[in-house]
Amino acid sequence: MADDITPEDSKLTVTKRKWAGQGKFLTGRIARPETDRLPPGQHLVKNWPVLDLGQQPRVPTSQWRLDVRGLVNIPTTFDWAAFQALPQTEMRSDIHCVTTWSRYDNHWKGVSTRDFLDAVDPKDEAVAVMLTSYDGYTTNLLLSDFASPDAIIVTQWEGQPLTEEHGGPVRLVVPHLYFWKSAKWLQRIDFVAMNHAGFWEKNGYHMRGDPWAEERYSND
Ligand SMILES: Nc1nc2c(c(=O)[nH]1)N[C@H]1C(S)=C(S)[C@@H](COP(=O)(O)O)O[C@H]1N2
Ligand SMILES: [Mo]
Q1: Which of 100, 119, 142, 169 lies 20 to 30 Å from 81 when distance is taken between CA atoms?
Q2: Is 118 among the domain residues?
Q3: The pTM is what?
Q4: Which PANTHER family match (predicted)?
Q5: Is residue 133 within 6 Å of ligand 1 at its C-beta?
């Protein structure tokens, strides 16, 4: 009977339901099928390796400050209490290090860069950020990458304060780029009109660092 053909059964709805299940046509990383979760050339680790320039600064929360300067309408120096007063968010994301290890399902807590940007209000001319850390490290990001919905300035990992070796008390996490962009021991953020190279970017590494495009090294 014609009555038996409900809208749910039509060929188009079946196909569309299948697309929905596969996340077809979605470009967001969250919809990436599980089989595509590991970027090319990466292997999975269960531990969390420590990588840095070898100087691990000890910054107690009582002495920690985050200076926000450059092209922002509200230049601010956050102390620990002021940073804790910003909206706090929890997220889960994967780490992809350019040295080829990846680690899944890290549970972070901190301030999303979206909420952070609301607080400091970048000017229209700002196109990039330069991050500076307590060990002297620098790294650059396009503002559009810094503002990614899964980027977070973290103070906790798996419900515990971020350890010193992993960049505590405060580090950035930008999971859609290689992990060298995720500055540990964050000290200063400059909003700038040009995307200048940071430490690794001056030393042969890519200006953007998208693991899915294997943007490991600069081409010049
Ligand atoms: N301040 C600072 N941040 C840094 C680095 C560094 O040397 N100093 N190294 C980067 C690199 S190359 C990597 S792979 C990750 C490593 O973070 P982890 O030690 O927590 O795994 O931190 C990034 N952030
Ligand atoms: Mo790295």
Answers
A1: 142
A2: yes
A3: 0.87
A4: OXIDOREDUCTASE MOLYBDOPTERIN-BINDING DOMAIN-CONTAINING PROTEIN, PROTEIN-METHIONINE-SULFOXIDE REDUCTASE
A5: yes
